[in-house]
């Protein structure tokens, strides 16, 4: 609180009246300021995924950074089925930020999109995890078997369904279950399914935990990248899972870029700040999960087919060397 002005020594009556008037004015301003309710913080809800997967770890770390460094903003994470649900939540205004695989987005967005890009983050690699004592050695061995393809609304479900399609494994030839990552691991442990598919950044902690305690293998899917590109989307690429990640035989698999997306309604200066923190706090984000630390400014702008938010464009232009 500002101090009252000191009395004027030896002042005249008019001077004393002026001093009194000034005091009243100060009190009026202070009373008015105290009466005003505090401004509501801006909510930033980040749609993530399973608590056992990368999106959630990444989102939790980003929330901590945002709340620490942007005054007047209150960020939080939402646990979701992941990509497809995240896109829907941001589109509908039920979340402000979200993570999604590129293949979940339409190839050719039309009109004014409700969702825009902040950055391309890293690649999700598709894992087909099976028990080492089980019958699955290649993708075709899933015929007449039971496999989890991820929960409804997840990017895994989309990629896995496309993979089974290009491999000629029709819905009638494979018993598919739509289980989350934790439920998939539990079901495979109990022998209730023959394998599960999951798309995530390396390493997927739930997969790492499973293979530490159960003899397992990851199936090579590299031969299916080109069929997926030809039938569905050019976003698919082949990536290796080296033996150093899980301590298993190295394989090649299908990979899919993923993006951080944002509501098109979010103010330009705020998205600038969010993009700045994403890029400038990569070391801290990488401590939450190694995949989060692999972001680069060179690849971050490649969010096609999704346009970048103008606030993100402003940051990338300003940060050019």
Automatic annotation (TrEMBL):
**Signal peptide region:** 1-35
> Sorted alphabetically, which keywords does the UniProt record give?
Signal
Name this protein carries in UniProt: TRAP transporter TAXI family solute receptor
List the Pfam families.
Answer: NMT1_3
Keyword Signal tagged: yes
């Amino acid at each position: 609180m500002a101090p009252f002005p000191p009395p004027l020594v030896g002042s005249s009556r008019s001077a004393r009246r002026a001093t009194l008037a000034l005091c009243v004015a100060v009190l009026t301003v202070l009373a008015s300021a105290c009466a005003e309710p505090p401004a509501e913080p801006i909510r930033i809800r980040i749609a993530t995924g399973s608590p056992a997967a990368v999106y959630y770890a990444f989102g939790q770390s980003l929330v901590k950074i945002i709340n620490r460094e942007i005054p007047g903003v209150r960020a939080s994470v939402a646990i979701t089925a992941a990509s497809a649900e995240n896109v829907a939540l941001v589109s509908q205004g039920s979340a402000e930020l979200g993570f999604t695989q590129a293949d979940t987005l339409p190839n050719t967005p039309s009109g004014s999109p409700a969702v825009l890009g902040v950055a391309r983050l890293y690649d999700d690699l598709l894992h087909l995890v099976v028990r080492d004592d089980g019958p699955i050695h290649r993708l075709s061995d899933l015929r007449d078997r039971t496999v989890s393809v991820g929960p409804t609304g997840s990017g895994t479900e989309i990629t896995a369904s496309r993979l089974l399609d290009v491999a000629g494994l029709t819905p009638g030839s494979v018993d598919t279950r739509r289980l989350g990552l934790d439920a998939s691991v539990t079901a495979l442990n109990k022998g209730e399914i023959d394998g599960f598919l999951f798309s995530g950044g390396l390493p997927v902690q739930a997969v790492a935990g499973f293979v530490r305690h159960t003899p397992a293998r990851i199936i090579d899917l590299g031969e299916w990248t080109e069929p997926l590109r030809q039938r569905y989307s050019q976003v698919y690429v082949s990536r290796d899972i080296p033996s150093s990640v899980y301590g298993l035989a190295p394989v090649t698999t299908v990979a899919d870029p993923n993006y951080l997306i944002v509501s098109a309604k979010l103010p330009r200066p705020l998205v600038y700040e969010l993009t700045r923190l994403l890029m400038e706090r990569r070391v801290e984000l990488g401590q939450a999960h190694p995949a989060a630390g692999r972001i680069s400014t060179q690849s971050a702008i490649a969010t096609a087919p999704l346009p970048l938010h103008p606030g993100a464009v402003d940051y990338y232009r300003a940060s050019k060397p």
